[in-house]
Every structure is written in structure tokens, then in C-alpha cells.
Protein 1
Amino acid sequence: MRRIAAMTSGGSSQVDSSRIGAWLIIILLIPRVARMIYPEIWVEDDFYLESAWLVSVGMRPYLDFVQPHMPLLEWIAAGYLKLFGASYLSIEILNEAAIFATSLLTYSIARRVAGRPIAIAASILYACSSLVFHYHAYERESFVAPLIVLAAIVTLDDTMPAIRQAVLVGLIFFVACAIKLTAGIPFPVMLIFIAVAYRRIASALVSGVIFAITLGAFSALLYRLYGSEFIFQTFVFHFLKGRDLALNTALYPRMILDVLVPMFFLGCWQIFARRIFNRGIILVIAIVAAEYAFYGVLSPTAWGHNYLEALPFIAIIAGMGASALALPNKTSSHRWRSLAGGAALILVSLIWIAPIINENWLHGSVYGFGFVPRAEISEVADALRAASKPDDDVIAPSFLCFEANRRELIRYPETYGVYREAEAEYARDGFFAARRHMGAADFFQLISDTRHFWVDQMRAAIASGKVSAVISDSAIQMFPLVLVPEDFLTSNGFRPKLITDHFTLWTRTPAPPPTPNQ
């Protein structure tokens, strides 16, 4: 009877389907708009903002500034900034558009894998994740995530001709890896899936060959453009930049995923208890496992933005947990028992296992919504722009240089000194000796030990008059690094031009006019 009723009400169900889709689009848009109008931003990895702008004004990655990734995203963002201008709002719109696209794609793949209710839950969980609010401005993984989800959708389409599937998956992963090389982590998973689940071994091999040829050709082009600096910064440097010795990378997800953690385990319980092992679920679980194996076990460092790549797939399994709580397929007594047990697990997790107050609440931020006032950034950037000429180098945090459209004297200081030391040791002692020394060192200690590379250049630039404006890092930033002593600035003719709650702009006081001869 249920099937007959469904068949005889096809017209109304199509209308309801489109209506739910329209409302879902609005629901998924609300978090993106809310994040853009929120009066504070989260400042992290801000040099990538500036690097996109630097490319837009003609500077070269690898040669004019350190670039530890392939530059496709910088090229795309540079073109976008030329059209719409370089400002936090313009770049945030681009990043939020990528996040919105990922939430729609999450719905699409989740519906294919587990049905509409779970797809709705998964897309909303992804769109409202504190990690997504956290990385709202400009993050590589925000652009990688939709590509990985799209590749998974293509992988699951067994009606697609084998050759077309092979070409699409290979090309999608080429584009993803041309943005960030570790985007390729799920690629072997999908190739194995195609070969085993569909018995398309030749298709999987063709996809791998297409990926290898396109990425190799792109690398050859970059080598021709930028020489050995491209090879060292993109491939070698990652093995020499140290590791985070104070962090347990295996448990790190509990500090960034909050509500998704208990929902994820509830989803896993549903999968194993009800034996939901269709092809789509197997692929989703395999992708999450591969991402965790790399970032949680193999990688020497762990940053929250790395998990943006796996977040849509985590959200799908979490959506299954949420759906099981909201729509339990049990008798009334069992339903309330299940709901109470699930609610208790979520409560315990948010208090203890994966606390709701986590890394996304640093510096007074609430649920990843940031801690630096937008109005203050605009005020300081306007003053920095007025105090310097378009071609001047300045000393200031990268995000202020980006907003002011001014070049930072030492670009990417967090990495600059470590890179210079790694390059010197690599040239002197070879890769393996440099790897033994620097690869096992503490990431943050390396930054401190090599700061002389850029501190000396900054002091010389201030003393010689090369820079006309200086803004030291603030304690409100995630990793305040560039701290120019006030007495050194004063002794070199600088005076405070603007003081805000978190930043001070120092400018050089013009020398007094010469006294006329008596």
C-alpha cells in the first residue's frame, strides 16, 4: 500500500521535493550570511590572504615570497581580486561561496548514500559547524572540500560510462592537488572503490594515469616558471619544517569538532547495529578513515583547517546519528529510551570528551565567530594606507597589509626563517641530514631559533628609512611573532600615529626643517 500510495501521488511529491530544496537552500545560506555580517573575524593563516593579493599585483610565488603549496588557488583568487578589489569582504564572499557549494554537495552525496532526511541533517551539520565558522575568511581547504565531495559523487555514479568517470575523477583530483597536494589523500580510496565495487580496474588505472600526467605537466610548467625554488618549497620543505611535539595528533579532532563527535559515533552505531553497508556508506567511511590516518597518525603537525577536507563526510555519518535521534524507527518506549541515551551521550561528550568550549572559542571567540573587530581592522588599514605609498614595504600583520593593499617587508615571517635555515642545511648537508635535524625538531622552537633571519632585516629597514610604517603583532592574534621594541622605533624617529584597542601604527616623524643661517 505504501508503494502504491507513493506511485499515485507522484505529482505532489515532486512539488514537495522542490519546496524542501528551496527551503534547504535558504537554511544553508543563513549561516554564510550571518558569518559575513558578524562584527568580528577570525585571524589565522592570514598570509595566504596577502599572497593572493601579491600575485594580483604581479609578484611571483616562490621567488618573491615563500609559497609552500601549488599556486592554482592564488592564480584564481588573484584574478578574482583584480575584478572585485582586495578586501576582507570580497575574499570572504569567495570563501563563503565555496563553503556554501560544499554544503549543497554534501546534501547531494548524502541523499544518494542515505536518503533525504539524513542528507538534510548532514548538510545543516556541515554548514553550522564551528570549524566552518572558524575558517570563514580564506582557507585552502574550503576550496578543496567541494572538489573532493564532487569526486566522490562521480565515483558513486555507476551509471556513468567508465571512461567518462575515469577522466572526471582524475581531472577533479588534479585541480584539487594543484591547490593543495594533500587533497589527494582520498584519491587512492576512490580508485580502489571503482576497481573493486564496479570491477572497473581499467577505469581506475586510466584515472590514475590522467591524474599523474596532468599533475606532472603542471609541475613541469611551474618548474619552468619558478625553477628549483618551486621544487624545494612545494615538495622538500614540508619534511624539514619540524613537528608539533606538544600535541597529541591522534586526539586532536576532539578539540575542534565538538557536537559532530557524539553525532558521528551515534551514526557509526547505527551503521554497524543495523548493518547499513551499502556502497556509498563504505566509501564515506573509507574516506574519513584515510583522512584521519594521515592527519591523525602520519602527519607531524595537525591544524584545524586540515579537517575541513574530511568534514563533509564526517557530517554525513553524524547526520545518520542525528536522524536516528530525531526519527527513531522503534516502538514508543524504545524511542524515548533511545532518545534519552543519545542525549546523555551528547551531553557527556560536549562537557568532557569533545568539549563545546574548544579551540574554536580562543581569544574570546564564540563558536568560531572570531575575535578581531572588523571596524578596528578597517580603521587601522585605512591609516596604514594613508601613511604609506602603494609601492612601499611596511611592517605589519599580513591581514592588515591585505586590507590596506600594502606589501609586507618580510612576507610570511612564521615560515621565512625556517625556510632559509632549511634551504641552507639542505644545500650544505643534503636532504637526509637536514631531515634528521629539522624534521624532528619542535615546529615552534624552529620558528624562534630562526627568527634572526627576518629580525635583522626588519631592524635594518627601520634604521635605514626603508619602511615608513610599522605595526607590531598584537596579543589578540593566534601567534604574535613580529614585535618591534617601542624604544627602537622611537630612537629611529617613529612616533605613534594611531592607537586602537589592539594595534598601534607607528610612522616616521619628518625631520624638522633646517634652521636658516643667521
Protein 2
Amino acid sequence: MKSYKMIIGTLAVIILSLVTLSIFFERTLQREMAEQFNKQQLLLANAQASNIQEYLGRMKEEMLHIAQSVSLLNIRNDADLKFITEGVVKDSSIIKKQVEFLDRRGEILFSRGNVHAEGPDAKKIIERAKGLCPGDVLIQQDTKMLTMIAPVCRLDSFTGAVMITMYIQDIAKTFLSSLKSEAQEHAWVMDEKGSLLYHPAQPDMIGKNLHKTDASCFQCHKSFEVEKKIIEGRGDYCSGDYYGRYISPTGEDKILAYSSAMAGDTRWIVAVSAPYSEVTQSLRRSMKFYTWIIILIAMTTSGVFAWLIVANQKRQQAEEREKHEKELEMMHSEKLASLERLTSGIASEIGNPLTSVSSFVQILTGMEEDEFKRETLETTSFHVNRISDILKQLSSFSKMTPSELKPCKTNSVIEDSLSLIQYDKRVQGVTVVRDFQPVPAITTDRNQLSQVMVNIILNAVDAMPNGGTLTIRSRAKDDSVVIEFEDTGVGIAEEELGRVFDPFYTTKEQGTGLGLAVSHSIIQKLKGRLTVESEFSKGSRFVITLPQGEAR
């Protein structure tokens, strides 16, 4: 039992270790997966920030080229401006632009484009542009519009300016909308002053500054500490580029990567963030599946192991029971062998003197005329005859005839045995129920088997003095034929069951206690078993089990 407990404990430790290792590996893989994803986010943020800066650089070069062309040519109408600015506005369907040609006073001479919002004050810009001659570009912006101004200079003299205005939202959307790969992954842009320039999920927040928040700003954020640290370059966010994890204001664990792009003198911060749970969702789903497989394997292994333990215990119990039964049979056989030798001597030593006594009693009974003495002699003769009968049974017990084994049909033997006692007065009040199944032939001694059956049937009848039911069953089981005799008699007490087959043990007043002992011995010699089950006051069941044999 201790070994079973040790094995079960070891198995439980193994299962617990497997589950623990599964959880540990899952978390480790989640961290590694999130780190790799975060590095990819940083690469994307760097790439798109570079693309934005490269685009703005190209626009700046285009503006210088247009300004130089205008300084060499005489622009008379919109057609001339369209020809010169065709390269700049060719992608206006994606990024809306407005190109304007200003004179030296800031008056708009010619204009083309699809930006309809009010741009910056041209007269104020023209004053700043005068100092850029020759060959520089002024870039200024607010939270929605980005404006580039290139001066038109002839002989280093300021004659006007070319101005282009674009939506910051269009620029950011063109380069960052492709970064959205998950439901809650976003790329957003803010400037170095803390103003939000682009956010696909919160368009109403664009233009607001995190240093000047109002109630609407806290509908999706509890604070803006992370964003402030990024702008101020404090803590882990002090480097130019960053990737890592942080707890968002909503309490959600997120991973973040950001890079910078310069728009003139203003730094744009391009950030990409995604929930940690969303990034590791596929891994968690897979690991959950593998964990269930491990648990299922562990449960199956435990079930099989438990079944093996139970089966082994039953096998051991069956072996111990069989060993105990064999020991009892051996003891019973030794007891019967000793008893046979004893009864053989007793029958021989008592039989001869008893014959003489019986003869003299018979002679005296015939000679005696006194009635009292005659009755006494008759009583003496009765008991002498009874002793003689007992000696005959002892003699037959000690000198059991050899078995004559022949093929026979079990159900036929039962019917023959019942026919032998059908006219016995004791049987008249008993109902015999036959429950016979087709059974194969057995090789046995028909007469000895019938003797055993008659003995068992008469014992059952004696146990039902007021009538009852005797059920006789026959059936095949494995390689044996089983015959059962079940009565509804007085039964046998549990403490007396072990002595039922002992010689001279009986509960009947006129019984010798040899019938079941002889029957048990006969069945043993026929290579079978005779067993009994009983419950006091409810009845008994005697079972004969014999090996099968083929008829010849």
C-alpha cells in the first residue's frame, strides 16, 4: 500500500511539474514573442519616420526647384503655374495640397490645389521669407496644417514666394495607416510640444495638447505621464528611439516603440503601440491547447495507472483467495484421508462384535415371552441396527469406489436425480424450478455425480420442512459447467459455514454428518469444486463446478 501511495505521489508531482513547466514556458515565450514584435514595431516606426522625413525633404527640394524656375520665368497666368508645379501636386488625391504664388507684398497672384481650409497669414509669412534669399525654405506648422515657403529671388533680390500647404493628417495617414495589424494596435504622431497631430482611433483629440488637458482628454486616458516622459526624454525614454512595455493609463499592459522625424525645426514623434495581451493572443491560444493536451494525457495516464492498481489489487486478492481455498481443500483432504483410515479400523473392529450382539438380541427377542423384556430387546435391536447403518456408511466412506468417467449430459443427470426422489414424502411440499441452459457434455462418473445431487436435494428439502422453492440452474461458464441448487429454507449461520463439509457435522437430529463430506470428496475426485453460500433464515445455495468434456 505504501508503494502505491509513493507511486501516486510521484505521478502527482510529475503532473504538477508538467503543468508548472507549461505555464513557465508559456510566459517565457510570451515575453520573447512580445520582445520580437516590439523590435519589429521599432523597425516600422523608424522606417515610417524616415519615410515621412524623406518625403518632406523631397517636397523642400521641389519647392526650391519651383522657386528657381519662377525666378527665371515670367509667370503670367495659372497655366504657367500649373506647368511648373505639376510634379508637386501629382499625388494630391492622397495628400491634399494648395500651391500659391505670392508677390513681394504677400498678395496671392496665382493659386491651385484642393486644400480649402484657411492657411497661414500670407503677409506675415512673406516678411519671414525675405530673409531666406537665396535658396532656403521656411517650414512652419500648426496642429493641422504644414506650410512650406520658398523665396523667389532675382539677383539676390526678393521678388516674391512660392507657398505650399498640406494637411498633416494626410501625410501621417499615408505613411502610418498600414501599421495597423491588430484590433487595438495604433500608430500615432505628436510633436515635441505635446500636441497630438494624428491618431486613427481618437480623431477628436487631434490638436489638443497634453499639457493643456480638459475633461474630454480623460475619457480614454487616466494620465499622460508616458507621453510626457517621451517628450521630456526622462527615464527609459531618454534615447532617440525606444521600444519596451508600459502600463497604459487604462491599466492595460502595452508594448510601445517610437521614433522621430524632423519637420523643419519641429520634431515629430512617431509612436506604435499595441496591447501585450493582443500580441501574445495566438501564442496563449496555442499554449492553452497544448496545456489541455498535457492535462488530458496526465488524466488518461492517471486513469490507466489507477485502473492498473485496482486490477493488480483484485488479482492479488483473487490469488490470495485461491491460495486460501487450496489450503482449506488440502486441509480438508488430509482430514478426510485421516478419517478414512480411522473409519476403516473402526468399521472392522466394531463390526464383528456388533454382528454377534445383533444375532444374540434377535435370538433373545424370539425366546422372550415377557412383553416388557421383549420391548426392551426390540429397542436394543433398533439401536444396534442404527449403529450398524452408521458403520456401513463409515465403511463406504473409507472404501469409496473408483470413478468410471464417461461422457454424459449434465441436464439429463439432474433430471435422473430428481426422478429418484420424486415420490419421497419430504419432497411433496417443495416446488422445484428448473432453469436449465444448453451446456456442453462433461466427462464424469454419472452415478457418483447423481449421488451428490440427490444428497444436496434431500438436504435442501430437509431445510424446508414447511415447504418452499428449490431452484436448480445449469449453465456454461468459461471452460466449466456450473450447477446451482438454491433453496428458500432455514439457511446456515455464518459462523457454521466453514464446517459444512466436515465429517460428522450436522444440524439434523437424525443426521450422521457424512453426506456433504462424502459429496465434497466425490466432487474433488471428479476434478471439480463444491461450494456453499447461505444466509440464515433466507436459504442456501450449493454450487457444483465441473470441467467440460467432449462426448465420444
